[in-house]
Design goal:
This protein is an alpha/beta fold and 127 residues long. Helix content is 26%, strand content 41%. The protein has 3 helices and 8 strands; from the N terminus they run βαβββαβαβββ. It has a 4-stranded mixed sheet with strand order 1-4-3-2. Strands 5-8-7-6 form a 4-stranded mixed sheet. InterPro entries: Glyas_Bleomycin-R_OHBP_Dase, Glyas_Fos-R_dOase_dom, VOC_core.
């Protein structure tokens, strides 16, 4: 068994698609109409056949509340691996990304947390 798709709730699918593809550098894999919304997935440019990230609309009240509470508590909804947290932090800062945690060392890892502009906090990690 393996993880094929994982999802995050977003407030606006178009805004999220732009942020995750243009700012973060993920590659759009699917963009299929599904009634009022779309099935939009992205993949890492290094693993285009790997796990897909679904940008799921938060139109359900429970989804909105879940997303809001995680954000308010400062809890990242997911984690992306990077080779160099400081380098990625600097690159994203230049693109206007707002960080809630600067690169921080914890034991043998480095992490940072940023706001995805779509209602989520995202953590990046360097092992």
């Amino acid at each position: 068994m393996k993880i094929v798709v994982t999802s995050i709730f977003v407030e606006d699918q178009d805004k999220a698609l732009k942020f995750y593809s243009e700012t973060l550098g993920f590659v759009k894999k699917h963009d299929v109409p599904t009634g009022e919304f779309r099935w939009i997935t992205l993949v890492s440019p290094e693993e285009q056949e790997g796990t897909e990230l679904l940008l799921e609309p938060n139109n359900h009240p429970i989804a909105k509340e879940y997303q809001k509470k995680l954000f308010e508590e400062g809890i990242p909804v997911t984690m992306f691996g990077v080779e160099d947290v400081r380098k990625e932090y600097d690159r994203l800062l230049k693109q206007g990304v707002k960080f809630t945690m600067e690169p921080t060392e914890m034991d043998n890892i480095k992490i940072a947390v940023f706001d995805d502009t779509c209602g989520n906090l995202i953590q990046i990690i360097q092992n």
